[in-house]
Structure of Peptidase family M28:
Amino acid sequence: MEIETDIQRIWADLEWLANKPRPAESDRLEECRQYCEQILNSAGWQVERRNFEAADSAGTSRKGINLVTTSANQAEGGAKFILGAHLDSRPETPGADDNASAVAVLLEVARLLGPELTADAAVSTPVQLELAVFDLEENGMLGGAYHAASCRAAGESVCGMVSLEMLGYCSEKPGSQTFPPELADRFPDTGNFIGIVGNQVSDPLIRHFSRAFNSVPNLPCESLQVPDNGLTFPPTRLSDHSPFWDEGFAALMITDTSFMRNPHYHLPSDTPETLDRGFLHNVAEGVLRATRKIVTDGLR
């Protein structure tokens, strides 16, 4: 199967976004938001800014802006698939892995699928694709929560949601991957795989993305399904998929496992040169394959 994603474009986006921190409500975050809008528009997507206000865990009122764009290819009565990644970073880090790596992959998917799904002559497909660039994830998944609640309130048929969360850190060194004791015997201790995390209603999504990643050469993949929306294992809830779980939707987090592998998590040292270009390229290709197949064939 031909590789379609381009690591040069992905890496250029990552480096631009991770040039400096992108904290909540900052001018730099707005610059990065405009950068994403420009790329999405150029690929044929119509981008909508969705403003919201929510209180963070400390009770501070925060203002955020999600970028949302939807393909024009939906068949009558079809469902929607949401692919998202958060743009904001913590104030102390440029956030190359967290989460510029994921946004760069989202933008690459947008470039490649835009011509197929956004043209006036786009072929009607079973599933409509919605891309979302979330805000205020670092303040408590506020952007994801706003969007999930909006989907539920509107009664939208969402066949699945995927949150891309830290995709670029890889290590071939034994012992580089850690897990809590209850999981340590179930997974490899070498941090060279991409992780899929789903909840109790996400079986089809887990199987679908596992197949897509396994179709990419040299991309190990491991999956974890948690009960009770991950409430008994809080690390599995640390991205914008968890509000979708709470609203009753099937959702996944695709991740390099964050602080269980990447020693630069939430530090000034989370910079592009710490990431693995080949690994990120393979992950991007897997995400593209999985997303395209859901849209064209439905979730099976």
